[in-house]
Amino acid sequence: MYIYKFYYIILFYIRLNFDTFEKDGNMNLRQLYYFKKSAELQHFTKTASELFISQPSLSYAVSSLENELGTALFQKQGRNVVLTKSGKEFYPYIETALQSIEAGVALLKQRSVCNTGKIDIGTVPALAGDFVSQIIHDYMTISPDISFNLLTNDTKNIIPGIKSGIYDIGFCSKIDNEDELEFVPVLTQEIVVISKNDHELAKRKKFDLSALKDYPLITYHENIPIGQTIRNILYKNNITPKIKHTFDDEASIAGMVSRDFGIAIVVNTPLLKLYNFSIMPLPIPIHPRVVYLAYLNERSHTEIVSNFIDFILKNNYIDTLKI
Fold this sequence. Notes:
The chain has 323 residues and is α/β, with parallel strands linked by helices. It folds into 3 domains: 2-113, Winged helix-like DNA-binding domain superfamily/Winged helix DNA-binding domain (Arc Repressor Mutant, subunit A); 117-188 and 290-320, Periplasmic binding protein-like II (D-Maltodextrin-Binding Protein, domain 2, 3-Layer(aba) Sandwich); 191-287, D-Maltodextrin-Binding Protein, domain 2, CATH 3.40.190.10. The protein has helices at 2-19, 27-41, 44-51, 55-69, 85-113, 125-140, 155-164, 225-236, 250-258, 303-314, 317-320, and strands spanning 74-77, 80-83, 117-123, 146-152, 169-172, 181-189, 191-196, 216-220, 242-247, 263-267, 277-281, 289-296. The strands form 3 sheets. The chain has a 5-stranded mixed beta sheet with strand order 4-3-5-12-6, with helices on both faces. A 5-stranded mixed beta sheet has the order 9-8-10-7-11, sandwiched between helices. Strand 8, helix 8 (225-236) and strand 9 form a beta-alpha-beta unit. The two termini are 53 Å apart.
């Protein structure tokens, strides 16, 4: 019921923004405060005095609100005013809504001046257990009252998540033509071939890239940036791979290799060290995968998010956490 009331009154605010007598819309919320205070004091002169406005301005605001609603909210009773039946019905909605708004404003003001609050981070799975957790650990040594909400996803979902406010920041690949976002490189990862130690490929001292087409290949989905990068490497070298299984994350790829589903091309992460794999560099010179810190470049972040971004940028994690 509370949610319904609040939703109703917010819709009412929006409607007032378009229909009310004030062109700039600044009176709209004040009208509701005026109504609430007048209902509590039951006296327009006292209300105007407490609100530091003239009585004619108060009377005009209340009258405009009544005209907008199509019903009288107050009636005179001697020198006082009392709520009409409609006013009594309207009052609890306004009281609840204004209390909610005031509580929300107070919360945000508190967070803006205090080093407390929560930061929502979206990250590609490869970084969650090592890179991002290390940054969080380091930051909490200087800001222990900050809490973090860490969610793994792929780049194509992290980017819109940042833009919609689901995430405050993200760690992901860079996407072209995303002018709303800042992309700052923070980590490089080598692209490697992995197999079980007893696999035929692992027994060779060296191999050509063309050897990969002889084996079932496991790698990333083609609709994520790292998957596109790997396919471009192969196609540019005239290799048509036998891609049998594709995944979004390194854990799934490593699990398939460990169960003899094939070899894999994957980024080298600490996770791979948990398996009994041969980890072999690709036999061609290639650029490593670059992971970026992504965040909106025009949003006024809360102070705690801005401080966290500054912390990441000022600390050279490329050197300290490189695979």
